[in-house]
Specification:
By secondary structure, the chain is mainly alpha-helical. The chain has a single domain, classed as Arp2/3 complex 21 kDa subunit ARPC3 (Orthogonal Bundle). Helices cover 59% and strands 4% of the residues. Helix 2 packs parallel to helix 8 and helix 7 runs antiparallel to helix 9. The protein is globular, with a radius of gyration of 22 Å. The termini are far apart. The C terminus is likely disordered.
């Protein structure tokens, strides 16, 4: 659903850019708490949260290269907002998707540069907000189990994709550059992206379930999953003392991070060659409804990595694979750097002064 330059007029693109910038600014503040691991037990104060968030961004980048068929002549790919929000938190999730979109726009000419604010608003902010709201709402009524987290992940991801499609249509209704039937655009966008949402939900639930199986402590959305043990003492229920956390060495995330990065590299470098070549949902709707008549050339069309291929490498498999590997590497480096800076700023922030007690010192 990467919106190219020319679909949305300049005033609305600028307004969307302001909204996106505001959302990123708010997310930077919120991500300080998420990356600090507040309330996460073993994660509290751990510097490993920054590379974990960088890995999530790189994984989303890799999986977005894997277009899957959804209908006649149409494909879809992961948007990733739900996955990022559930794994690392909604604020950090917005930043993850923003990093991915920035790298795709600058290096791969995917998603217009003047439409970057539109893409962040639609693919980052809307998907994260909708998915996390559905996810949290379901967890509030479902049993506190890992299966509930997986089910809620599926539902949140499923709803987030057509919500993003509706958000794009709303922006197009205000700032669209082609004279088309908005009713038909809305019906087509929501219809095809509901199908894409099923794929998004399956990928999100499978990924969250896999991480829960090996490292549930690393899933932001599963924090506090286990209810405290209560014992009856003297006729009253009292909360049992929490078990001591495992030593840091025993809970090292290095193996997990290495496996995750390796998976992302394999997906982008090898599996992406077998992705569907059909146009994605937005491209198909744009072609069918005449929206693409106003598309503009991408400012980065001459990038050495434009269209996910390495310039002057003739072998298509090698060219696409190298581009994918470079993209994953660049995303994890840039993302981890940003998250590390946010994490360090949180660690360096002065602790709040203790509240004054009434009556002064004795």
């Amino acid at each position: 659903m990467h919106v190219p330059d020319g679909f949305i007029n300049t005033p609305v693109s600028v307004a969307a850019g302001v909204v996106a910038a505001g959302a990123v600014a708010v997310s930077l503040r919120g991500a300080r708490r998420e990356l600090a691991g507040a309330g996460s037990g073993a994660l509290a104060g751990a510097d490993r949260t920054a590379p974990l968030a960088g890995l999530v961004a790189a994984f989303v980048f890799a999986v977005q290269m894997l277009n899957f068929p959804v209908a006649a002549g149409t494909s879809g790919h992961l948007l990733g907002g739900a996955l990022a929000a559930i794994l690392v938190g909604p604020y950090t999730g917005v930043l993850c998707i923003s990093v991915v979109l920035l790298m795709q726009g600058l290096l791969f000419a995917d998603g217009g540069l003047t439409a970057l604010g539109v893409n962040i608003s639609v693919m980052g902010v809307v998907t994260v907000l909708v998915a996390y709201a559905v996810f949290r709402g379901l967890l509030a009524v479902l049993p506190r189990t890992r299966r509930s987290v997986t089910v809620a992940s599926f539902a949140g991801a499923l709803v987030s994709v057509p919500a993003a499609a509706a958000a794009f249509t709303a922006l197009y209704a205000v700032g669209g550059t082609a004279d088309v039937s908005l009713g038909k655009v809305l019906t087509a966008m929501v219809g095809v992206h509901t199908l894409i949402g099923i794929g998004e939900a399956a990928i999100t639930a499978a990924t969250v379930g896999a991480v829960l199986a090996v490292r549930p402590d690393l899933v932001h959305g599963a924090r506090g999953l286990t209810a405290p043990l209560r014992l009856r003492v003297g006729g009253e229920l009292v909360e049992a003392p929490a078990a001591a956390p495992a030593p840091a060495a025993a809970r090292s995330t290095r193996t997990f991070l290495a496996a995750g990065l390796g998976t992302a590299l394999v997906l982008a470098g090898i599996v992406s060659f077998y992705a569907s070549a059909s146009p994605d949902g937005l491209e198909k709707v744009a072609a069918d409804q005449g929206i693409d008549a106003t598309v503009e050339e991408h400012a980065a069309k001459d990038s050495p990595l434009a269209d996910y291929g390495v310039k002057d490498v003739d072998d298509a498999r090698l060219s696409g694979g190298l581009a994918g590997v470079i993209g994953v590497g660049a995303t994890v480096v840039v993302g981890s750097g940003i998250f590390w800076a946010v994490r360090r700023r949180s660690a360096d922030a002065p602790a709040p002064a203790p509240a004054a007690t009434s009556g002064g010192a004795a």
